[in-house]
Amino acid sequence: xxxxxxxxxxxxxxxxxxxxxxxxxxxxxISRMTGRAALGMEHDPYGVDLWHAYELSWLDHxxxxxxxxxxxxxxxxxxxxVESKSFKLYLNSLNNExxxxxxxxxxxxxxxxxxxxxxTVELELLAVDDPSLAGVGLQGECVDSLPIDAIAAGEPxxxxxxxxxxxxxxxxxxxxxxxxxxxxxxxxPDWASIxxxxxxxxxxxxAMLRYLLSFxxxxxxxxxxxxxxxxxxxxxxxxxxxxxxxFYTRRGGMxxxxxxxxxPGTRPLPRLNRQ
Length: 275
Hints:
The protein is α+β, with helices and mostly antiparallel strands. The chain has helices at residues 33-39, 84-92, 102-117, 205-213, 222-237, and strands at residues 29-31, 46-59, 65-75, 80-82, 122-126, 141-142, 169-182, 189-201, 241-248, 254-261. The chain has an eight-stranded mixed β-sheet with strand order 5-3-2-10-9-8-7-6. A hairpin with a 5-residue loop joins strand 2 (46-59) and strand 3. The chain is elongated, with a radius of gyration of 19 Å. It starts with 28 loop residues before the first strand and ends in a 14-residue tail after the last strand.
């Protein structure tokens, strides 16, 4: 079982009293460095952790509730991830807090999350019926119907991946809805779809599916799972470019969509129908 950085302090798996007032101190950082060092990553990947907060609410200056959906972008270059349970509790702590304006609320929230992440976080506040929140389907080739002999035993590692037909350089877009991993603290399952677009040596699709299924009993945070895939796929297909994104299903009013890329400035895909 992978030990979670900072897990001795995290709120995951602990009973927490209801938060009744503004509590930025409840936010908990988890260092990215430990997971990346274990993989031998030589530099930080490009990308973001894209969060949707569906239960975002505070009070306006008259005391009337304001509701919306927050779309948070936490840079992959930030030194810390934001631990999910503390993130949810922090947002709930805003429920009875008055703000003079919508912008005042956004400014406060961005400052609090950025302080914990160690880098500037972006927040887009959306109306609950904003059309951009409509789910989409993934484009590309779904590998889920490919036959496999057995799910690989042990932990996921790059050696499970292989090249197809000598590994000519191709461009391909692949995805799977079969990803399951386990929280490293609570052991509870996290469900996701995974999508990748790359140009590089041709991956054997069956081997890639077996590799993805090897995460089924693997203990690691969402962001770390996607970075592990990014690292292992890069080692095998030697990409000219690689984009990979995990779409984790909603839990506690939030979903998370880690996106990693070899290219700076590349934007993640929107949320899926499944989410």
